[in-house]
Amino acid sequence: MKAYTKTKYGGPEVLRLEEVELPVPKDNQVKIKILANSANPADWHIIRGKPFFARFVFGLFKPKDKIPGADFAGIVTETGKDVTEFKIGDKVFGESLAGGVFAEYSCVNEAVCAKMPEGASFQEMACVPIAGLTALQALITHGELKKGETVLINGSSGGVGHFAVQIAKAYGAHVTAVCSGKNVDFVRSLGADKVIAYDQENIHRHTGKYDLVVDTNGNLSFSDYKRMGRRGVVVGFTTIGHMMSVSLKKAFSKFPLSQFTAEANTKDLEILAALVRDKKIAPRIEKVFPYQELPEAIGYIEAMRTRGKVAMSWENTDGHLN
Ligand SMILES: NC(=O)c1ccc[n+]([C@@H]2O[C@H](COP(=O)([O-])OP(=O)(O)OC[C@H]3O[C@@H](n4cnc5c(N)ncnc54)[C@H](OP(=O)(O)O)[C@@H]3O)[C@@H](O)[C@H]2O)c1
Description:
By secondary structure, the protein is of the alpha/beta class. The chain folds into two domains: 2-128 and 283-313, Medium-chain alcohol dehydrogenases, catalytic domain (Quinone Oxidoreductase, Chain A, domain 1), CATH 3.90.180; 131-259, Rossmann fold, CATH 3.40.50.720. 27% of the residues lie in helices and 25% in strands. It has ten helices and 15 strands. The strands form three sheets. Strands 3, 4, 5, 6, 7, 14 and 15 form a seven-stranded mixed β-sheet that branches. The protein has a six-stranded parallel β-sheet with strand order 10-9-8-11-12-13. It binds NADP nicotinamide-adenine-dinucleotide phosphate. The site of NADP nicotinamide-adenine-dinucleotide phosphate (NAP) has 31 residues, from α4, α5 and β9. NADP nicotinamide-adenine-dinucleotide phosphate binds at residues 40-41, 130-131, 134, 154-155, 157-161, 178-180, 183, 198, 216-219, 235-237, 260-262, 301, 304-306.
């Protein structure tokens, strides 16, 4: 089968499209014919080995795992003997914690997969896992957002942000969203009640007060959270120094500010699938790259200015189900 491999850290150019052995599922894994991926900042962090401390997890001198990739959608072609929730032919999507999905086939733990909703495309559902799980868990699990509350979402036009606006609306919140001027109409079309262009209004001087402040961009300071929010959730980060400053101030304050790493699980993926099925949320795809241009897709999102999501398609491979 075809797969992207990496044997050293670097930019997207270190990825090589190669012929490798078909993987064999472990007892709790499903083997999936991958039909689409999406690109996330986590992919280029892992491919570049940046920030440096990530190398203590992903390999100090060279990457431990050969095939990268986390978000996928595809069809189950084989099941391990302990798999209970999926059968051959199921259309599934999910987030592989161990990488390995930038390939024609991958074996993934069944606990990080869910069935696709009727009518949704592979490209759409490949865009949901990391960004959708992060938005859902930021707002609901950690932010404890309730119907009728007000939420400010800083960084509302990218992968996580565009899901966060739609999920917050689906849960009955009043949404104020922050994005660049060029994305104001896009974010309004997602359902935001009020949109602030950060290049026209200085968010660090904004005087509004909200039940919850969620920052997917990571440039809000601790005092921004305290001034604008009754509670807050940190999702992204801009620099290590900025992140450490927020963490240190939080440690010496009673202000309820959560920092978290999103967790892949079937239950939350099923919530997202139901929201897509009920048309409460819709992945917005800025661009689809064919699998032959997957490294270009990773390079494209590194600018961190994506409107919605970027997907990669494997649907033009030979189509055999092995
Ligand atoms: N905690 C977790 O578990 C977790 C999980 C997933 C992702 N993340 C992190 O979350 C961040 C966002 O991920 P993503 O996938 O949404 O990235 P993305 O798709 O690249 O989106 C980034 C967005 O940031 C916005 N932005 C840039 N400068 C901004 C500013 N000054 N103020 C407000 N927004 C600004 C951009 O919107 P404009 O073009 O409109 O400026 C862009 O749409 C990344 O740092 C990522 O590593 C964390």
